[in-house]
């Protein structure tokens, strides 16, 4: 089966907080119902392939959770409100409702073997990874946790397991942010055989932007993910890492999730499962959910403005609300009329009150892929039309531009660490992909590059191929038509000489292109070396 499925059941939203608890008050069923309505009204649901929802079996829940814990949770439907309240109190930041435990609802990533935690009862993503390993014999599963909280429940589940690579970025603020754990820091990298398969990116300041998120994808996650070569990618997709969220206080806009999704779709031949976790600003949440769905369905990616240098934490001096308000000129103008006192109050503006431009619609034209060739092609891949012949002059021009490749690992390192950051910052309106027979690139590598580059220019791409065989033309057309790129296999390390060359180029170019910067000198100023 291919396509995108949407798993949701009304039953998941039949729960509510039955007593007063300010910590849990933001975890409301409208998070689910409003997200679902938004997906429906954007016409996204009807484009999905139908997959029926079923309850998780006890056997599945027991893949991670203990028998004792499951038995305890099974008692909750018959508890009185008082009993539920008491039961809840043995755990942290969570509540139970008598009917909530049938079809398991999000979120899940804080839930542990024998404990509910952080609005989570059962760990959906951990169970999914264990299930996939067991029933589909998978050897490598990647979990990307872009929720603003650390999914410690997922980390605990796989910390000794080298077959599951867990990545999480999270608001940390030197352990002062919930769940306040030492093991959420960057130096927790896994244990025993699992050493190196746990990647934490703690944010020690709030107000992170689209540039910060892309920077971590290009310089931390994607290099590791391509080297790992997952057979399946699961996303703990919390949208509390988006602008306006009362928990996250971050400034990344909903559009960024369209890009993060697109970037992950090139892995594992597109086998990607995005699972809702947090997200408590209903406007930001529903917009982010729709952006993610659009990308899963192959719609052209949205344009991002203002991509540049990630923020060295030492340079963030402003509280997040101030940083976010730069986006909002309408508010700013109004503010000029305010008195000093009112201005002061404004500084303490809640993230819920922050405004940002509504994402532009992402119309879904049928992907238009046309082929033009200087010679007759025997057969064209499905969905491509023949346009006509290429003038000889274009071919001569194209030949002058070359992307010379060494090993797969080197090429991918250069593409992820140099080309993509540079391209995202440049923000082109058109991407010209040029390939000649002398490039030395293999088809799967080229198809990967081609797919990744379609995140730019809202997918507007012109590919020029010269002297390439049918396999290359076919691979390019498939990629341009939105098919997932072939996987590359575990990449291994690029040879030292290539690493050195790529690093030298990065050093040289980072003065101009901020998104190439992956470190800052001690003083907190931009690295001028190179
Ligand atoms: N305001 C998820 O996003 N309490 N869980 C925070 C500080 C718990 C978040 C209290 C937050 C749990 C899935
Ligand atoms: Zn969260």
UniProtKB/TrEMBL annotation:
Q: What is the lineage of its organism?
A: Eukaryota, Metazoa, Chordata, Craniata, Vertebrata
* Pfam families tied to this protein: Hist_deacetyl
Region (Disordered) spans which residues? 305-368
Q: Origin, by domain of life?
A: Eukaryota
Q: Name one GO biological process term.
A: epigenetic regulation of gene expression
State where composition is biased (Basic and acidic residues): 320-332, 340-356
- According to UniProt, the name of this protein is Histone deacetylase 10
**Gene3D superfamilies from the xrefs?**
Histone deacetylase domain
Single GO MF annotation: deacetylase activity
Domain Histone deacetylase, chain residue ranges per copy: 105-294
